[in-house]
Design goal:
- By secondary structure, this protein is mainly α.
- Among the domains are: 148 residues, Serine Threonine Protein Phosphatase 5, Tetratricopeptide repeat, CATH 1.25.40; 86 residues, no CATH class; 142 residues, Serine Threonine Protein Phosphatase 5, Tetratricopeptide repeat, CATH 1.25.40.
- Helix content is 69%, strand content 1%.
- A two-stranded antiparallel sheet has the order 1-2.
- Strand 1 and strand 2 form a beta hairpin.
- The longest helix is centred in the N-terminal third of the chain and has 24 residues.
- The radius of gyration is 25 Å and the shape is globular.
- It comes from Ifrita kowaldi (blue-capped ifrita).
- Belongs to the TTC39 family.
- It holds the Pfam family Iml2-TPR_39.
- Keywords: TPR repeat.
- This is TT39A protein.
């Protein structure tokens, strides 16, 4: 076993490796760690964490598989350093002991090392406990990446709960008056704040139906407490500070949009990013987040420049370029530059393996927006591309991607010999990724999108009636409603959302439209402080509809809207939530 000095050396070496990683020296970072991954818990954890960050950024199935296997190996390394009896039990007995007569007066002056020694627990063993819990936490995060429906997460609940319980006990320890800060305490406390923050924040976002299952086995989460813990972890100088920062950046710039109502704290994201961008001006990860922040601020041209700069910053990690291509595709969608959007969808379809079905669907979708005089860049045929989408279905860890399922369902109408074309497929997929919350900050982009939707609506009115007419009308109504809302035309937006609900019986296939129309109407009411009406609509959307496209994502958004609706106006705290600590 390593001594305390070896633990210090390991932490220094691992922080140096992270520094290399953040400077785009990816292979150097991994090489500096690899030799000690079997002998040092921090080297094993850091090595696996870098691979996990790669997987999180690229969504590449092979990256996800490699990261999962490596994290499992890191967990085994950490296990060797753990005390054979449960450390959490020892800590629990210390923290919750009712009488102080068990302690000597001098006990309170002991260092952290002496404290754990008195419990027959070494400093190394307590660090092994936090590293082991972190391995479990990161494996759970990978599970979520693979399965948005959370089935695997719940099935693996025992392992996740072990991590959760360990963080709870360690958090109780550092809150205890008996806790004395010792050497490396910042790294230890940073690990606790990362875990407590991640669990609280993530659990608070889960849809009610999933949360009920998790609460049954002892989980609970509080969004505000989670954010606070991560903010404290990010502001301290520790091994985990960059991880806390990146999780917060992901939350404010992605999770609140893709799985929320689009009300992320962009200003906070900018504040968090600023010192890292100053220290790593060519760091690809931070340039990417800088691009995302510009996107969310509505500065699309500035965002494009940042993403291009990100691609130029490094060539080793090609998969990371694909994240930029995905964002660039949407940037040009917002600008209605269909050929450029097609170009990036085409690049993704040829270079990235996350979801060929989605990429080909988007290629076909952009082709459908070309004018009569526009030539297909590569001679591709819109209908033929749509027809091959179902054959490209991919399963990751036995699960199909929700976005891919959506694309396949939409593309099926082209299997007919005389298909009815989709009216505005890229603009519909843009809704799935909450893109209207992005362009809503730019009246000129929103007005342009509304113009395109009006043209599509007029074309639909001129076309022959089909069994899909109601579906197509309602798709356009939903998207127009969002544009009208962001342009301040509240009454018109309300009418568009209500139109969908009133025509529910006429919708043949796109049943996702009804709960989402109710959700958007509820969010509109929330913006007007019509809370009671909003809550009723959200409950209706949550309770009355099931088995529709992107259902789990819609439930995540409903949960976010309910959280907003039920938050006390004076302090924004979530009613009735309990924190991990």
């Amino acid at each position: 076993r390593s001594s305390t000095s070896d633990l210090n050396v390991a932490l220094r070496e691992c922080m140096a490796a992270l520094d290399l990683f953040l400077n785009n020296k990816f292979s150097d970072a991994l090489a500096s760690l690899q030799a000690k991954t079997k002998d040092s818990m921090y080297h094993a954890l850091t090595y696996a964490t870098i691979l996990e960050m790669q997987a999180m950024m690229t969504f590449d199935p092979q990256d996800i598989l490699n990261a999962g296997n490596t994290m499992k190996e890191a967990q085994a390394t950490c296990q060797r350093f753990r005390k054979k009896s449960t450390v959490a039990d020892s800590i629990n007995s210390l923290v919750h002991r009712q009488s102080l007569e068990h302690f000597t007066e001098g006990f309170f002056n002991y260092s952290l090392i002496d404290l754990f020694s008195s419990l027959c627990v070494t400093l190394e063993e307590i660090h092994a406990e936090i590293c082991y819990a972190e391995c479990l936490l990161q494996r759970a995060a990978l599970t979520f990446l693979q399965d948005e429906n959370m089935v695997s997460f719940i099935k693996g609940g025992i392992k996740v709960r072990n991590s959760y319980q360990t963080y709870r006990e360690l958090d109780s320890l550092i809150q205890s008056p008996h806790y004395v800060k010792g050497e490396n305490h910042l790294h230890f406390e940073g690990g606790v704040k990362l875990g407590v923050g991640a669990f609280n924040l993530t659990l608070s976002m889960f849809p009610a139906r999933i949360l009920r299952l998790l609460e049954f086995v002892g989980f609970s989460g509080n969004k505000e407490h989670g954010l606070l813990q991560l903010q404290e972890g990010a502001s301290s100088y520790s091994f985990r500070s960059v991880l806390c920062t990146m999780l917060l950046l992901c939350y404010h710039t992605f999770m609140t949009f893709v799985l929320g109502t689009g009300k992320g704290n962009v200003e906070e994201a900018e504040r968090l990013l600023k010192p890292y961008l100053a220290r790593y001006p060519k760091g690809a990860i931070f340039l990417f987040f800088a691009g995302r922040i510009e996107t969310l601020k509505g500065n699309i041209d500035a965002a494009v420049n940042r993403y291009e700069e990100c691609c130029e910053a490094q060539q080793y990690w090609k998969q990371f370029h694909h994240m930029c291509y995905w964002e660039l595709m949407w940037c040009f969608t917002y600008k209605r530059q269909w050929k450029m959007a097609f170009f990036y969808a085409d690049l993704l379809s040829k270079e990235n393996t996350w979801s060929k079905a989605t990429y080909i669907y988007m290629k076909a979708a952009y082709l459908s927006m070309f004018g009569p005089d526009d030539c297909s860049p590569f001679g591709d045929n819109e209908a033929e591309l749509f027809r091959i989408v179902p054959s490209l279905k991919l399963k990751i860890a036995g699960k199909s991607l929700p976005t891919e399922k959506f694309a396949i369902r939409k593309a099926r109408r082209y299997l007919s010999s005389n298909p009815v074309p989709l009216p505005v497929p890229p603009l519909e997929m843009m809704y799935i990724w909450n893109g209207y919350a992005v362009i809503g900050k730019c009246p000129n982009l929103t007005e342009g999108m509304l113009e395109t939707l009006n043209e599509a609506e007029e074309a639909l009115a001129r076309s022959s009636a089909t069994e899909l007419l109601a579906d197509d009308r309602c798709v356009i109504k939903l998207l127009k409603g969002l544009c009208l809302k962001h342009l301040g035309k509240i009454s018109e937006a309300e009418d568009h959302f209500n139109y969908i609900y009133l025509n529910e019986k006429k919708i043949k296939y796109d049943h996702y439209l009804i709960p989402n129309a109710l959700l958007e109407l509820a969010i509109l009411y929330l913006d007007q402080d019509r809370r009671e009406e909003a809550i009723k609509l959200l409950e209706k959307a949550k309770q009355n509809y099931k088995n529709y496209s992107m259902e789990t994502r819609t439930h995540f958004r409903i949960q976010a809207a309910l959280h907003q609706a039920k938050s006390a106006p004076e302090n924004g705290m979530h009613c009735g939530a309990s924190a991990v600590s």
